[in-house]
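Renewal narrative, Specific Aim 1. Our central claim is that a sequence can be written position by position from structural information alone. The example that follows is taken directly from our test logs and has not been curated for this report. It begins with the structure tokens describing the chain, in the order in which they were read.
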């Protein structure tokens, strides 16, 4: 039995009924996937019925607890014998659908992954509504100089993990190449640096990663770079991100007024369309 708190049936119904945007966000959309080696990652945003926003309604988790609705998660790897301990692998599907308020909070803070649906190509959009189209048309409202610290933090986390031999995040034997480091963690650390720098320079992220950086990232993923060269590129990117965080022409803060207005418009329009049973009590 899957007992992850956000994998419950009530959460699934809320997320699927209220989805306003869902896109691919993994290696496939970055252009760094290696054929036959990657899972598929999708991220979505949903609107909840009013009692979950203006009231104290909760959902039942798979282990029977009542918890607030924040998100729904589906990871096909969890259906295997190891349950939650199973790592996603080739052919698996990983989906996270956030409630719109939680997603907006993370996006406004510069979270690299939750920002991606704002810029993925139309071909990578799985589902979208008018609220989702308005969101993607106003992606710049979420971007500020604050993204520098967030991208730096995620870059350093991946960098530390690529050679670590202990702790919660450590190099995985299946991804450790001849250079003695986890090539997948290394590639993601470098990708975060490349994309964070572009975001701070231009206010957007190009997907897939443009050349020549894309070919270099794929070379790292394919174990064609010695560790010293990877570390040197990471050091360059850290320096660039730090400098851009202080010199970028982006605003100091995201456009919180617009974000609040979009949330209000989106929720009230969704609630007006809900059948009476869903609006007042059922899921």
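The sequence written for that structure reads:
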């Amino acid at each position: 039995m899957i007992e992850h708190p956000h994998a419950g049936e009530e959460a699934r119904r809320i997320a699927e009924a209220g989805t306003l945007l869902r896109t691919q966000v993994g290696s496939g959309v970055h252009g760094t996937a290696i054929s036959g080696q990657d899972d598929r990652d999708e991220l979505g945003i949903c609107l909840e019925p009013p009692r979950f926003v203006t009231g104290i309604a909760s959902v039942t988790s798979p282990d029977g607890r009542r918890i607030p609705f924040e998100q729904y998660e589906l990871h096909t790897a969890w259906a295997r014998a190891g349950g939650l301990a199973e790592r996603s692998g080739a052919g698996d599907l990983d989906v996270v659908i956030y409630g719109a308020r939680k997603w907006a909070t993370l996006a406004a803070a510069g979270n690299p992954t939750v920002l991606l649906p704002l810029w993925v190509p139309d071909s990578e959009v799985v589902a979208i509504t008018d609220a989702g189209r308005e969101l993607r048309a106003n992606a710049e409202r979420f971007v500020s100089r604050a993204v520098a610290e967030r991208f730096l933090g995620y870059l350093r986390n991946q960098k530390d993990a690529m050679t670590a031999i202990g702790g919660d995040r450590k190099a995985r034997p299946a991804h450790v190449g001849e250079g003695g480091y986890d090539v997948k963690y290394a590639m993601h650390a470098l990708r975060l640096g490349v994309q964070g720098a572009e975001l701070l320079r231009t206010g957007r992220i190009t997907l897939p990663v443009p050349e020549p950086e894309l070919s270099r990232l794929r070379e790292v993923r394919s174990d064609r770079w010695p560790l010293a060269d990877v570390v040197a590129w990471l050091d360059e990117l850290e320096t660039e991100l730090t400098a851009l965080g202080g010199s970028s022409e982006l605003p100091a803060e995201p456009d919180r007024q617009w974000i609040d207005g979009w949330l209000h418009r989106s929720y009230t329009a969704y609630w007006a369309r809900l059948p009476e049973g869903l609006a007042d009590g059922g899921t």
